[in-house]
From TrEMBL, chain A:
Keywords: Membrane, Transmembrane, Transmembrane helix. Belongs to the UPF0749 family. The keyword Kinase does not apply. This is DUF881 domain-containing protein. The chain crosses the membrane at residues 7-27. The lineage of its organism: Bacteria, Bacillati, Bacillota, Bacilli, Bacillales.
TrEMBL record, chain B:
InterPro entries: DUF881. Gene3D superfamilies: Protein of unknown function DUF881. This is DUF881 domain-containing protein. It comes from Brevibacillus invocatus. Residues 45-86 form a coiled coil. Belongs to the UPF0749 family. Keywords: Coiled coil.
């Protein structure tokens, strides 16, 4: 009898202790949830990175213009400063894509998948060769991937793409600015060949074009020539900002 | 018997409060630790924010310096052009090339297109239909180019000959610089033509309007910033 009631007391003590602990934990954790702030730290780091990058770029630009200014100032004759100006013109024309460029890069061609009769039996409807055509957004997408991975210049079927180049469907064909291009589409991209090739793999370019029954053949080239943009563009609306803007 | 049950009640209360005490002390030390960590995080955050702010300030300074420098160079060039006809000829070409390369800030008449996720996005079952994708932005840009836009920028990033447009989540990356929605596409050109091209029946505006919020506004002058960083080997 005595033993039994002592046992009960003992058990009761343990149980109430446990309940006490549980209650407290419950209360505490529901009262103040722990904040997670690591995400915003990552974001801040990213934007700091961005500013640092910009800083570097600005410094590079400033030193470039300083150099130009210095060259103008130190040129002894009119002819010399004229040649400095011509050099500057050539550099800017190159950046605008109005001069042909050459260097290492990759060549891409998008061709129809060859019709292989041995695979096809009567249950499978044979794909119409060339039946699935590529549209403008497909090309824009591919071009964008190239530029995003460091391509410095890209041409499609010999037409150099610049900052104002439109790629669009006009009727059944694709036009690059005012010129019509016909399949097969051949692209050339100047840049790090390895980087560009692995980017194509990573983005699933091959698989994407397979959906429209096309093969994407990409290969590395040590020397690639990309022509100048031939589009005549007169500037009618824009002019350089002379005053310091708000932006 | 009553003594015994009384004893039991006391024991219950005592052990109960002991449990309470134990748990409280454990929790408090834990809390202190997390608080310390939070504090550290907070400090880190403020430090980062400070650095970003000072870096921004510096960049603004540098930008002004660059513009000043460009103006100085411009003056020298103009002086040369005034002296010699040949120089004037080259200067004309140089100015055009600089504008087309995107290395100088430009202004002129044009339009501003603002794109934003649709308000339906949060309530709709199929969210992906109602947010702005990178191909939507490309579509608008492409249409503007086709309509003769002379210069375009997206969220303050000038499009140059090797610019790319990427979207990652709710942000857009142009020239390697990330920015958040709304996406503002500014273009210089004939405002009427540009707007007309977008709002053709069956055109871009019509096809996007149902899914995302898109506004087009004509402006007498639009200012586009220069592309910064042309000196280093460009990667966008």
């Amino acid at each position: 009898m005595l033993q039994k009631s002592r046992k009960i007391t003992f058990i009761l003590a343990i149980i109430s202790a446990i309940i006490g602990v549980m209650l407290t934990v419950q209360l505490r954790s529901s009262l103040d949830p722990v904040h997670k702030e690591s995400r915003s730290i990552a974001e801040l780091r990213a934007s700091l990175q961005k500013e640092l990058e910009k800083h570097k770029n600005l410094l590079a630009d400033i030193s470039k213009y300083n150099q130009l200014y210095y060259q103008y100032e130190t040129s002894l004759s009119e002819d010399e400063s004229l040649s400095v100006m011509r050099e500057e013109l050539a550099r800017n024309r190159k950046m605008a894509g109005m001069v042909g460029v050459e260097g290492p890069g990759i060549a891409i061609s998008i061709v129809d998948v060859e019709f292989d009769e041995s695979i096809v039996d009567e249950h499978m409807s044979a794909p119409v060769v060339g039946g699935y055509s590529i549209d403008d957004e497909d090309l824009r997408w591919l071009v964008n991937i190239l530029f995003a991975n460091g391509a410095q210049a890209v041409s499609i079927n010999g037409h150099r793409l610049i900052s104002t180049t439109a790629i669009r469907n006009v009727g059944d064909v694709i036009q690059i600015d005012t010129r019509t291009i016909q399949p097969p589409y051949e692209m050339k991209a100047l840049g790090e060949p390895e980087v560009l090739l692995s980017a194509l793999k990573l983005e699933g370019v091959e698989e994407y074009f397979q959906l429209s029954n096309k093969h994407v053949l990409a290969e590395k080239r040590d020397k690639l020539i990309i022509p100048a943009n031939r589009e005549e563009r007169s500037i009618r609306f824009m002019k350089p900002v002379k005053e310091k803007g708000d932006s | 018997m009553t003594r015994r049950s009384k004893f039991q009640i006391y024991l219950t209360i005592v052990t109960f409060s002991t449990g309470f005490l134990v748990a409280t002390s454990i929790e408090t030390t834990k809390l202190m630790r997390t608080e310390k960590m939070n504090n550290q995080l907070f400090q880190q955050e403020t430090q980062l924010t400070d650095r970003i702010l000072s870096e921004k300030e510096q960049n603004r300074h540098l930008e002004n310096q660059l513009i000043d420098l460009q103006r100085q160079v411009g003056k020298v060039e103009e002086a040369m052009a005034a002296r010699k006809e040949e120089a004037a000829d080259i200067l004309g070409q140089l100015e055009a090339a600089r504008m087309q390369a995107g290395v100088v800030a430009v202004e002129g008449p044009g339009i501003v297109v603002t794109m934003q996720d649709s308000q339906h996005a949060s309530t709709s079952a199929d969210i992906t239909n109602y947010i702005v994708h990178e191909h939507d932005v490309r579509l608008v840009v492409n249409e503007l180019r086709a309509a003769g836009a002379e210069a375009i920028s997206i969220n303050g990033q000038r499009l140059v000959s090797n610019s790319s447009i990427r979207c990652v989540g709710p942000t857009i990356i142009v020239n390697g610089i990330k920015s958040a929605a709304p996406f503002v596409v500014s273009a210089i050109g004939d405002p009427g033509t540009l707007e007309g091209a977008l709002s053709l029946p069956g055109g871009v505006l019509q096809s996007l309007q149902d899914f995302v919020q898109i506004d087009v506004a004509k402006h007498a002058t639009v200012q586009l910033p220069a592309f910064v960083g042309d000196a280093k080997s460009k990667h966008s």
